[in-house]
Amino acid sequence: MGELEVLHPGLYSSIQDLGRNNFRKFGVPQSGVMDSYAAKKANLILSNSETDPVLEITQMGPKLKFYSPTRIAICGAALSPKINNIEFSNNKLIPVASGDILSFGKRIFGCRAYIAIAGGFISEKVLNSYSWYNEITESSILNKGMHLKYPEVKILSNRLNASLKVDTSYIRSNSIKVYKGPEHDLLSLSQKELLLNTEFTVDVSNNRMAIQLTEPLQNKLKPIITGPVLPGTVQLTPSGKLILLMRDCQTTGGYPRILHLSEDGINTISQKVTGESFKFQLNQEARGGLMR
């Protein structure tokens, strides 16, 4: 079994998979990777299962020392990854030798990147998921001195350049795809027009639970009876604040659910940092679901 040491945890790093499904009725958040496209691609490069746990890192990556050979792949945000201070690009298979140190430099674009490792990180499975979440799993974020385990593999040639073509245009996109939410039809015509014509900005209040937007939408709607919400639900508060619920969100809420992000929309918004702007793009063909 291989092992790595966390020399520096980065800004916000955690083990995630595709989420903790079928427990929302007990009030358990779904969790899972914020950007499912990037995480799946990282696993695909290594011929892992797309459900294998990866390390999600946010804006400022960690510094990790490997004690056993392995292979890694990094997809998502461009955070200038380096092995032993030699920079390499995302979206390719990278051999790692015993003693190698992975670190990160300047953020070029995007917010979250995903480190996949050959065979997947070895972590405790709780409620059918490896995803870390406070009060459900023992750990919620990386800490300095922590050790992570992984299957040991024979190292490959350092000249190996296997890579996969990955579309990263969604990361820079300023269009967020959405469906109508259950309370969308309660909005006035002017409110509906403003929703699609306003350039919204990601507020400083944003994390794995929710992303708030800076620009308000005038609101005269009354709160609703508490109902189900999902990652992707867009809530309108009495003050006009828009809240985009993300992977670690609660399971119920009492604010009108005026929009629902598509999976592509969640992937794109999860790559936005504070101050970046976008517009909603409404998909007229279907409505966002609530519970499955």
Write a structural description.
By secondary structure, the protein is mainly beta. It folds into 2 domains: 2-169, no CATH class; 173-283, Cyclophilin. It has 4 helices and 20 strands. The chain has helices at residues 36-45, 169-172, 189-197, 263-269; strands at 2-8, 13-16, 54-58, 63-66, 70-78, 81-83, 86-87, 94-96, 101-104, 109-117, 147-150, 175-180, 200-206, 210-213, 227-228, 233-236, 242-245, 252-253, 257-261, 277-287. The strands form 4 sheets. It has a 7-stranded mixed beta barrel. A 6-stranded antiparallel sheet has the order 7-6-9-4-1-11, with no helix packed on it. Strands 2-3-10-5-8 form a 5-stranded antiparallel sheet. The radius of gyration is 20 Å and the shape is elongated. The chain starts with a strand and ends in a 5-residue tail after the last strand. The relative contact order is 0.19. The mean pLDDT is 93.
Quick gist of this model?
The chain has helices at residues 36-45, 169-172, 189-197, 263-269; strands at 2-8, 13-16, 54-58, 63-66, 70-78, 81-83, 86-87, 94-96, 101-104, 109-117, 147-150, 175-180, 200-206, 210-213, 227-228, 233-236, 242-245, 252-253, 257-261, 277-287. It has 292 residues and is mainly beta.
Number of helices: 4
Our Rg estimate from Cα atoms comes to 20 Å
Fraction of residues in β-strands: 25-35%
Separation of the first and last Cα atoms: 38 Å
Enumerate the strands of the largest sheet in spatial order, edge to edge or round the barrel: 12-19-16-17-14-13-20
Tell me the structural class.
mainly beta
Along the chain, the helix and strand elements come as EEHEEEEEEEEEHEHEEEEEEEHE
Percentage of residues assigned to helices = 10-25%
Instruction: Extract low-pLDDT stretches.
Output: none
The tally of beta strands, per DSSP, is: 20
In this structure, how is the largest beta sheet organized?
A: 7 strands, mixed, barrel
User: What is the count of distinct domains?
Assistant: 2
The 3D shape can be described as: elongated
* Rounded mean pLDDT score: 93
